[in-house]
Write a structure and sequence with these properties.
The chain has 723 residues and is an alpha/beta fold. The chain has 20 helices and 27 strands.
């Protein structure tokens, strides 16, 4: 296997080595060959829920999975369902790969979402809540408390809650109030004792206060009781409406359309347009109403009428609503109720040569490419250290980096600021359109600009989603490129829970490719020729299609063939159809997907050679990998792109080809384990049903891939070598 392409060949030339697969005479693919993407997403969230149901997991982790499910579903409604509804209302075309009317799709989503939310509530009430109580974490109601506990909570309410509550009446002088998205609210019906007139009022549950309130702080944390914030407020409504008779109260919650749509043109100031749109987001139309199942018809009718919401969009659920509040409880300091501690290891190549001294990242990378695997390997001692050393190194002349999502007080951003203040040339391409991180990214961008960093806000009509960093360093009068290409964001916080891959390399060709790409992103260069990269939106899909077609030709010629793809989402029809045709040609295809998968595996005459697996667990599987057998000369790419229209057509994405035999062997070994029937995973059937296989026929648990990788990484680190 050659280490790089010949210097006089480009990625475009490389692509041209692959002629399109001859489709003449190939059977026509059936019309119903795709699974609905929205229902597939709901199936993904069901897999998250199944983790909460798993009694083998620590109970606070199960509570955390309930909260993740709730948070995921909120975003699904705010973006996916809202987007579908907006397109239907405005008469825009609704993209669907299943050939059904948009309203039918919404009906299917509604049925599936209702079933899942009801199951979610049952899992909490019947499984997780009792398990928490068994572990000494008891969620009780006001009626269960004695006089002493009530007195303490009344004092807490008076001092800590009453001053921040804002009861809002609805009457001829007070119109129905604006209900903010995802806020928890109490609907209250009161009666004026003098006039006998009944009125409606709304009390918003403050989001800045703890959702679960400790009943008695003197109780041991190993045996403590909690009441929900809304229960505490509900039992003090007399303080909020003195002189009024409280007739009834119920809890409700509204989800609004928060999908940002920016009309971009060449003359518009993108950052100002986005800020304007973010302001409008707060007032998006309601698309879901959750109410407690004890709500009376009069109150529900008022809410439905005032919010202008349909019956299909109403979700009646047992209290408590918004189980995302379980994030608070899941953080309790009860180590025995969490996953065991796993400390990320420093990659063996980046370990310091002397104790108590930092490693020389540049020297290590110049010796050999470094393949990083987070969170098993530390982000702080690799990517973060790389950028911090670059900022402090007097031999470094320039740093160029993309930022899609980062964290508050980010050491990555601070390193870029330090570099700029030290007089280095620093370019930061901040993607201010990263959904739900827009405001934070605008703030970071302005902070960077003030420090002298050259900030670029992305390209008109495209999101810059690739994860790239390039450092230019002078060594003995020669400029050298040091590059990082990753599958995940430059975010130290999420790097501890997201599984991602990254390549640190001093390869000159990769550096030249990144230089050209950054020039294209920051200026007006139109450079389309890359040697180690596949870049969207112009060439990535085409390059993958040609690689897939090559495997099909090899299979038909009797040569070794095989395709392995790991992504978060598999939706793009052109890629899926190419995989179907490769399967029909005899290519074994293995797809490892975390979330959405529109591909139907195991269908005779269509996809009998395709297997699809999903692995969910302690860490969020986030890396993207593309592996091609290539007649025994295996080629593997890693990068930022999922197989979705937005990634391939409307984003700047980059994949880099791995060339180190050790790295290719390592990725192959991980894939071997993931697809092994002895590894715990979910298996996708052709009808869209996912089946979990976590134990063998004798009931023994199957291999936990993430736990195994953590153990293997620790062993390699102790041994001081990669493999």
């Amino acid at each position: 296997m050659t280490d790089t392409l010949d210097d006089d060949r480009t990625a475009s030339d490389f692509d041209d080595d692959f002629e399109p697969f001859d489709l003449e005479g190939a059977p026509e693919l059936p019309a119903e060959r795709y699974l609905d993407r929205e229902l597939s997403w709901l199936a993904f969230n069901q897999r998250v829920l199944e983790l909460a149901e798993d009694e083998r997991l620590p109970v606070l982790e199960r509570a955390n999975f309930l909260a993740i499910f709730a948070s995921n579903l909120d975003e699904f409604f705010m973006v996916r369902v809202a987007g579908l509804k907006r397109r239907i209302v405005t008469g825009l075309a609704v993209p669907t790969n299943v050939g059904r009317a948009p309203m039918d799709v919404l009906e299917d989503i509604s049925r599936a979402a209702h079933d899942l939310q009801e199951r979610h509530a049952r899992v909490y009430q019947e499984l997780v809540k009792p398990a928490l109580a068994e572990a000494g974490i008891r969620i009780v109601k006001w009626d269960d408390l004695g006089a002493a506990e009530r007195d303490h909570l009344r004092e807490y309410f008076s001092l800590q809650m009453f001053p921040v509550l804002m009861p809002l009446a609805v009457d001829p002088a007070h119109p129905f109030p604006y209900i903010s998205g995802l806020s928890l609210n109490l609907s209250v019906r009161v009666r004026n004792s003098r006039t006998g007139r009944q009125e409606f009022a709304r009390v918003k549950v403050p989001q800045m206060l703890p959702r679960f309130v400790r009943v008695d702080p003197t109780e041991s944390i190993e045996d403590a009781r909690y009441v929900t914030l809304e229960d505490l407020i509900a039992n003090h409504l007399g303080d909020l409406f003195p002189g009024m008779e409280i007739m009834a109260h119920h809890v409700f919650r509204v989800t609004r359309n928060e999908d940002v749509e920016i009309e971009e043109d060449e003359t518009e100031n993108l950052i100002k347009a986005l800020e304007k749109e973010l302001l409008r987001r707060r007032f998006g139309p309601p698309i879901r109403l959750e109410v407690t199942d004890d709500m009376d018809d009069v109150t529900l009718g008022l809410l439905v009428r005032e919010l202008d919401i349909s019956e299909r969009e109403v979700y009646r659920l047992p209290a408590p609503l918004d189980l995302g509040g379980l994030f608070d409880l899941s953080k309790l300091d009860r180590p025995e109720l969490h996953y065991s501690t796993n400390v990320p290891a420093t990659n063996w190549q980046l370990q310091p040569s002397e104790p108590n001294r930092p490693a020389d990242i540049f020297e290590a990378v110049s010796r050999k490419d470094v393949l990083l695997h987070h969170p098993y390997e530390s982000f702080a001692t690799s990517v973060q250290a790389f950028l911090e050393q670059a900022a402090a190194d007097p031999h470094v002349l320039a740093i160029k980096q993309t930022l899609y999502r980062t964290s508050g007080d980010s050491p990555i951003v601070e390193a870029l600021i330090d570099a700029a203040e030290a007089g280095k040339q620093v370019l930061a391409l901040v993607e201010i359109k990263a959904r739900f991180d827009e405001q934070a990214n605008i703030s970071w961008a302005r902070k960077l600009e003030k420090a002298g960093v050259h900030v670029v806000y992305g390209l008109v009509g495209l999101k810059t989603h690739c994860k790239l960093a390039l450092v230019i360093r002078e060594e003995q009068g020669v400029l050298r490129h040091y590059s990082h290409i990753g599958t995940g964001n430059y975010n130290p916080k999420t790097s501890r829970i997201y599984e991602d891959l990254g390549l640190l390399t001093a390869d000159d060709q990769v550096g030249k490719d990144l230089t050209r790409l950054f020039n294209e992103l920051s200026g007006y260069a139109i450079e389309k020729k890359f040697k180690r990269l596949l870049v969207a939106p112009l060439h990535l899909r085409k390059g993958l299609l040609k690689l897939i077609a090559n495997e099909a030709r090899n299979a038909e010629a009797g040569k070794p063939s095989g395709i392995r793809i790991k992504v978060n989402s598999m939706v793009d029809e052109a890629i899926i159809d190419a995989l179907y045709r490769a399967s029909n040609a005899g290519v074994p295809v293995e797809v490892w997907v975390r979330g959405i998968c529109s591909l139907r595996p195991g269908i005779e005459g269509l996809s009998e050679n395709i297997e699809v697996r999903s692995i969910l667990g302690r860490y969020l599987e986030h890396s993207r990998v593309f592996s091609f057998e290539n007649d025994g000369d295996r080629q593997i790419y890693i990068g930022s792109a999922d197989m979705m229209h937005r990634n391939l057509d409307r984003r700047v994405e980059a994949l880099v080809r791995l060339v180190d035999p050790d790295h290719i062997a390592e990725i192959t070994e991980i894939f071997d384990t993931a697809m092994d029937p002895r590894t715990s995973s979910w298996h996708l059937g052709g009808d869209g049903t996912w089946t979990r296989r976590s134990a063998d026929d004798a009931g023994h648990p199957l291999v936990d891939l993430q736990k195994l990788l953590a153990q293997q990484t620790a062993q390699r680190t102790r041994a001081g070598k990669r493999r």
